[in-house]
């Protein structure tokens, strides 16, 4: 099957993640994810893969057995089944040739994808691009990745003489709500030595560093009082929280930072004079910097507690920078990817990812996992689009990684 047909077939299955169901621990959070998982199970069996499994949580795993006796490390490829809850409608994808400065997504609704608003679109002039009708997201995040991985497996079925080591694939649910599928994934029994997620954007992108990420929940307990008798009695927890926020380093917030600059993000503030809860996101590329930020918040809470009493902070780690797992002798997944991009004539653009992805969680669990491009742009939006040539390139890169891994270790 052609890779584009394959991708379009996946977009027909609505796999929008359901945050409410996810919040109460249901996985997969939406039934469409299981429908897609079962669909992929059939395709994997037809492609001759072994150990094809779909767990009750819609985690799909399968193995392409090595066709050589050499001791080649097992490489894995990951994609996620769900799509973002920002847009829930069924996807109506179409292929258009991009010939002018804009693409009409929906004439009746007057929705256009324009180079003015999205300048990177200009580099795809003359190319076929998969877009939506402007009423849904495309779901190339991350169905383009699934299509690229499956296309590679089809390539190896059609070319059994091309030598390769063992390759594992996994499709995970509910990435779009706290990387839940990756968190539930059993890395140890999966048995791969290294892997790659395909969850980046445009052709050439490559992620081998992202945030160290944590959360802080600060609870301020005050003392309520009737205004008649509030003087000297009322201890307003809302104002305590405001003091706390005022002591955060100015400018170290998402709206003032970029590239590798870390921040504190005041995410949520709720309460009354008796009790206020403040939630913050803490992000830093550098492990030391991350630790310092967490320690700073802890210290701040301690000092305020000494002053007013009733201040409790709960600090927790969310995910780690993948770079922490790719140091020294464990940097070979990066060099293999570099060689693979080069062999495909694709210029690699390393992006410090200001976010998390499944591979960050998998790396932390002991399976180092950089992130490859899918070729698509404008994730989570009605303007999401996927140039066909970029999708094909994503599949080529996966093939090249498998070949490069074989060649590198075939001594
Ligand atoms: Zn994604």
From TrEMBL:
Residue numbers annotated as active site: 82, 175
InterPro entries: ArgE/DapE_CS (IPR001261), Bact_exopeptidase_dim_dom (IPR036264), Peptidase_M20 (IPR002933), Peptidase_M20B (IPR010161)
Gene3D superfamilies per the UniProt record, alphabetical: 3.30.70.360, Zn peptidases (3.40.630.10)
EC numbers, comma separated: 3.4.11.4
Record-level Gene Ontology MF annotations: metallopeptidase activity; tripeptide aminopeptidase activity; zinc ion binding
Keywords, in A-Z order: Aminopeptidase, Hydrolase, Metal-binding, Metalloprotease, Protease, Zinc
Signal peptide limits: none
UniProt-annotated binding residues for Zn(2+) 1: 80, 141, 199
UniProt: Zn(2+) 2 binding residues: 141, 176, 380
Names of the cofactor(s): Zn(2+)
Cofactor note: Binds 2 Zn(2+) ions per subunit.
GO biological process: peptide metabolic process; proteolysis
Keyword Zinc: yes
Homology family: Belongs to the peptidase M20B family.
Name assigned to this protein: Peptidase T
Species per Swiss-Prot/TrEMBL record: Vibrio scophthalmi
């Amino acid at each position: 099957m052609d890779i584009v047909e394959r991708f379009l077939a996946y977009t027909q299955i609505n796999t929008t993640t359901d945050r409410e169901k996810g919040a109460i621990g249901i996985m997969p959070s939406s039934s469409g994810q299981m429908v897609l998982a079962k669909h992929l199970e059939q395709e994997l069996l037809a492609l001759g893969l072994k150990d094809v499994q779909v767990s009750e949580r819609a985690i799909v795993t399968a193995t392409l057995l090595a066709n050589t006796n050499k001791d080649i490390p097992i490489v894995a490829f990951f994609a996620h089944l769900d799509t973002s809850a920002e847009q829930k409608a069924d996807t109506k994808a179409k292929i258009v040739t991009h010939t002018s400065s804009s693409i009409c997504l929906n004439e009746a609704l007057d929705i256009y994808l324009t180079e003015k608003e999205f300048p990177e679109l200009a580099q795809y002039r003359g190319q076929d691009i998969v877009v939506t009708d402007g009423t849904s997201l495309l779901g190339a995040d991350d169905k383009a990745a699934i299509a690229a991985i499956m296309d590679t497996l089809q390539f190896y079925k059609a070319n059994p003489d091309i030598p390769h080591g063992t390759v594992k694939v996994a499709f995970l649910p509910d990435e779009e709500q706290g990387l839940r599928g990756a968190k539930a994934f059993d890395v140890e029994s999966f048995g791969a030595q290294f892997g790659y997620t395909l969850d980046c954007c445009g052709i050439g992108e490559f992620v081998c560093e992202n945030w160290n990420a944590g959360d802080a929940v600060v609870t301020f307990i005050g003392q309520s009082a009737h205004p008649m008798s509030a003087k000297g009695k009322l201890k307003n927890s809302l104002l305590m929280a405001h003091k706390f926020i005022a002591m955060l380093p100015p400018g170290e917030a998402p709206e003032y930072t970029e590239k590798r600059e870390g921040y504190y993000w005041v995410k949520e503030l709720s309460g009354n004079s008796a009790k206020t809860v403040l939630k913050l996101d803490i992000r830093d590329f550098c492990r030391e910097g991350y630790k310092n930020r967490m320690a700073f918040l802890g210290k701040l809470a301690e000092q305020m507690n000494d002053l007013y009493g009733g201040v409790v902070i709960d600090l927790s780690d969310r995910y780690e920078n993948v770079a922490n797992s790719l140091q020294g002798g464990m940097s070979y997944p990066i060099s293999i990817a570099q060689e693979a991009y080069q062999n495909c004539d694709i210029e690699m653009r390393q992006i410090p990812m200001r976010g998390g992805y499944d591979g960050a969680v998998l790396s932390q669990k002991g399976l180092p996992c950089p992130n490859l491009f899918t070729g698509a742009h404008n994730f989570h939006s009605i303007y999401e689009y996927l140039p066909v040539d970029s999708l094909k390139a994503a599949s080529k890169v996966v093939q090249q990684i498998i070949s490069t891994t074989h060649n590198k270790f075939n001594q």
